[in-house]
Amino acid sequence: MVCDAAMKTFLCTLLIAFILVPAGVVPGQSGGRALQSLIEAERAFSKLSEEKGIKEAFLFYLADDSIVFRPRPVPGRKAYEAAPDESPVLLTWEPAYAEVAPDGDLGYTTGPYQFKDKSKPVDPARYGHYVSLWQKQPGGLWKVVLDVGIRHPQPGFRPVEVMTWKESRPKRLVKVDKLAELNNLLRVEADFSAKAAAEGILAAYTAFAQDDIRFYRDGSPPETGMEAVRQATSQSLGKSTWEPMDGDVSRWGTLGFIFGTAATRSGGATDAATASTSYLRIWRKTPDGQWKIALDLAVPIPPE
User: Fold this and answer.
1) Within 28-176, where are the H helices?
2) Cis status, amide bond into 71, omega within 30 of 0
3) Whole-angstrom Cα distance, residue 23 to residue 225?
4) Percentage of the chain surpassing pLDDT 90?
5) Domains 21-165 and 178-301 share a fold
6) What is the Cα–Cα distance from 92 to 45, expressed in whole angstroms?
7) Pairing of strands 106-117, 126-136
8) pLDDT number for residue 17
9) Phi-psi region of 104 (alpha: psi -120 to 50; beta: other; left: phi over 0)
């Protein structure tokens, strides 16, 4: 979409925001208490970062076993414990979309962030979008179990309200064996990888992604829908392979995530990788019990 130069920036950005809202997404206020508490936790996280600094905020909200991408997946608390106590960087963000599993123990939020160096006031801010996965702790508090972001050159619109998925539960909801269900999801990940190897990456996304998939790639604002995936994958060169590192699923096995690293090779499987990335996939179970990709994110790993 091209915005006329005479249009107000706010109106243009707001119009783009409405165009990008996919079917099946509704205002977050229609969600239950678990969703509202997650949104409040994310906003409090950003406020603490603004008031007390990045290190204190992340060490307060990161779970003990959390993961952050640097750009490879690494233990989150260890990464921030090693950060300097004083930093001139101001990092703030705002959730634009949030989703919680029906059982209320696992959820995620995503939205725009701004990164500003206060010691260099004349330098422009840097922008991007974050994704934070949250898990409810035994005491009832939300803690971040995975945090990652992509960078892009334009500021994200300030959300008027947080959107969420119009809940469509599987037909039968029962508490699952989480380890067994995670292994099941890892098998689905393997099937996705096999489909990509045999028929191409677009065929894999067509078979395994939901129509409203959120697609995040470094350097560009996030996009929604299979058309965005088609455009992105049409430019991909070589074949990709994925190496899952870990993940988790909700108590009823309706929402889950897998993260790891990926390599793209122009030739065979034994050739040197031409590109490496860290990836995150958030999976949502459909009413008929199939795992489908709700969000797919990749950030580049620089050559060593």
Assistant:
1) 33-52, 54-61, 76-81
2) yes
3) 10
4) 69
5) yes
6) 9
7) antiparallel
8) 41
9) left
CATH of 21-165, one of 3.20.20.70, 3.40.50.720, 3.40.50.10700, 3.10.450.50: 3.10.450.50
User: CA 276 to CA 241: how far, in whole Å?
Assistant: 10
Neighbours of 207 (CB within 10 A): 14
Give a three-class secondary structure readout of 230-281: HHHHCCCCCEEEEEEEEEEECCCCCEEEEEEEEEEECCCCCCCCCEEEEEEE
Q: What is the pLDDT of residues 155-198, one digit of tens each?
A: 866 777 899 887 666 666 778 899 999 999 999 999 999 999 99
Q: What is the residue extent of each domain of the chain?
A: 21-165, 178-301
**Which among 56, 55, 292, 275 has a CA at the least distance from the CA of 168?**
292
**Going by CATH, does the domain composed of 178-301 fall within 3.40.190.170?**
no
DSSP for 122-142 reads TSPPEEEEEEEEEEE-TTS-E
Q: Tens digits of per-residue pLDDT, 89-132?
A: 999 999 999 999 998 999 999 999 999 998 888 888 999 999 99
